[in-house]
Design goal:
InterPro entries: LMW_PTPase, Ptyr_pPase, Ptyr_pPase_sf, Tyr_phospatase_low_mol_wt
Keywords: Hydrolase, Protein phosphatase
Pfam family, one: LMWPc
Largest sheet: 4 strands, parallel
Protein name: protein-tyrosine-phosphatase
Number of strands: 4
Low-confidence stretches: none
Oligomer: single chain
Mean pLDDT: 95
Number of domains: 1
Radius of gyration: 14 Å
Structural class: alpha/beta
Strand content: 5-15%
CATH class: Alpha Beta
GO molecular function: protein tyrosine phosphatase activity
Length: 148
């Protein structure tokens, strides 16, 4: 199974989801990736505030670098997991004709949260903590579904 996590810039939410899943829930036969719908941060490391939040929870994402989502991602991944409805719309606009790769909201797998994962970029530290909690919950539910 090839999973792709997608957010806007690929510097906060989607690399966090990739790192959290890799750190806590990685299963054999599952490959992970993340991307952003925007191009502003291509090649950059995750946001330093997000890295600090992740590190405070024992998760390392320092090896990740931002990249932009492309139509080829539909072919290369079995499941695309987006952080919010705008990401879903942006991803769907690039869907190749005839492609049936599922695109799901991360929090659709959560038992604690629903809707969109908060974008902490313009938030104070508590926004990064909430983002971490939401992603952790969504990844946990996703892992439970995949391991079945």
């Amino acid at each position: 199974m090839k999973l792709l996590f997608v957010c806007l810039g690929n510097i906060c939410r989607s690399p966090s989801a990739e790192a959290i899943y890799r750190s806590a829930f990685q299963s054999e036969g599952v490959t992970l990736d993340s991307a952003g719908t925007g191009s502003w941060h291509i090649g950059k490391a995750p946001d330093s505030r997000m890295l600090a939040t992740l590190a405070s929870h024992g998760v390392d994402a320092s090896d990740l670098r931002a990249r932009q989502f492309t139509a080829a991602d539909f072919v290369q991944h079995d499941l695309i997991i987006v952080m919010d409805e705008q990401n879903r719309r942006d991803v769907e606009r690039l869907r190749p004709a005839g492609d049936h790769t599922p695109v799901r909201l991360l929090l659709s797998y959560s038992n604690e949260y629903s809707g969109d994962v908060i974008d902490p970029y313009y938030e104070a530290q508590d926004g990064f903590e909430l983002c971490f909690a939401q992603i952790q919950s969504g990844c946990s539910g996703l892992w439970e579904q995949i391991k079945q």
